[in-house]
């Protein structure tokens, strides 16, 4: 099971023998006895006194003394920037938020204006240092992530990507990108004196953008960013050869964030609304829908539809769940307040439309990107809601209980004592991870340390057991928010599932995704099994409540 990670400040390197023993314990349910014994011999040789593991451990400890977090840079590079899978679905998480009370483009633009103002208000807190330190189970989370949310973008490369940050508290970019009907606009959101535009000023500018973006026969340039990273990296190089294209791309990359004003989508039944809207935020619905209204490399993309749907899509190399949840909580609180500021009588410059020159090569790149997107975007997404009051009555950790329920849905484990032990074990593993004692990061660090020293990859990492243990068939994540939002992302492997959950006061929201091109997986079936598993667990404890 792969659980989304967090950046914890100043975590020490775990003891080598502790990690190796926990690694063997984790392998016990995965390997038959003879294979486990074979792996045990490899692990013991790696960790013996004076052995390779001890030497690599010594270098990791040196690294930790000279860095704020000894694993975070490596982790971002290995887990995200070197990954060649498309960002859409495979990497970028999406959050679909509760539907707003508007049903046309007029309400869309009014709400989008308030949303923009709310994000700028949050940014002002980050820039001024007024944002308080966030904690999880008593551990301080790394606050360095917050400034990086704004004016940042992932840049594709042939072998690996990199992230560029343009944001500076005083002299950073002063514009956002707005995209409607596949057309991108630069919208300055600060007055000449540095004050942010009021909601009514922003609304007036969005009306101007709407009046300039009627045509829908434009090429959906944003779909290029949905490609395999190597393919997009090559197309990116070709695209930037033209001066006009380079200027337009740079303005998108430098923008504080992107606002996607989506066109209406086909009406569906209420019971399927949550799943459909989550898919819209995640990938835009395909080449004939709103996928051209995305720039998947951008760190923050807020999506607002005409039917009251809205949400956020973010790029994972820069943004993590907890900072995103804090940002959304602030925006939601801001949206409850009336706009009391009167717009100054100052003429505003017309939002700048971004143009692209499309030659035959770029047109071919676009056609290939369209075809590929429509092939792999067929991701089944199921939303599920389950009450959680009974978990509190049992005095069990809700997060650990949910994780065990997800695995029960996968393996159908069903005994009270085993359940209690599993929940307790997961709670301990969570605490260890929050303290920087997780085994996956430590093992990765040892592997990368060997590579950095120019050594051959140690045998422990070439062992079949390590490959099996890191083939994450279950990608899970808890993103607690103060609203009934549905967060989703795609599986890490073709034959896997992704399960994200948002615990509320008296219920839990789940989203389950699986690629429908794989015969072994079925999101709807796992959702039904998960719901049955939760009920089964509830019944197991019912006599003791």
Provide tags for this entry.
545 residues; alpha+beta; Chloramphenicol Acetyltransferase; 8-stranded mixed β-sheet; 5-stranded mixed β-sheet; 14% strand; globular
Question: What does this entry look like structurally?
Answer:
It comes from Sinocyclocheilus rhinocerous. One of its GO terms (biological process) is carnitine metabolic process, CoA-linked. The active site is at residue 316. Keywords: Acyltransferase, Transferase. This is Carnitine O-acetyltransferase-like. The protein is α+β, with helices and mostly antiparallel strands and 545 residues long. The protein folds into two domains: 86-377, Chloramphenicol Acetyltransferase (2-Layer Sandwich); 382-437 and 475-540, Chloramphenicol acetyltransferase-like domain (Chloramphenicol Acetyltransferase). Helices cover 44% and strands 14% of the residues. It has helices at residues 16-27, 33-47, 52-65, 72-81, 105-128, 145-148, 199-211, 229-239, 243-254, 270-283, 321-335, 360-376, 389-393, 398-411, 416-434, 439-452, 459-462, 464-469, 523-541, and strands at 2-3, 94-97, 135-136, 139-140, 152-155, 162-165, 175-180, 183-188, 258-261, 300-304, 310-314, 352-353, 379-387, 474-478, 486-488, 497-503, 507-515. It has an eight-stranded mixed sheet, with helices on both faces. Strands 1-14-16-17-13 form a five-stranded mixed sheet, sandwiched between helices. Strand 10 and strand 11 form a beta hairpin. Helix 1 (16-27) runs antiparallel to helix 2, helix 5 (105-128) crosses helix 11 (321-335) and helix 14 crosses helix 15 (416-434). The two termini are 30 Å apart. The model is unreliable at 1-7 (pLDDT under 50).
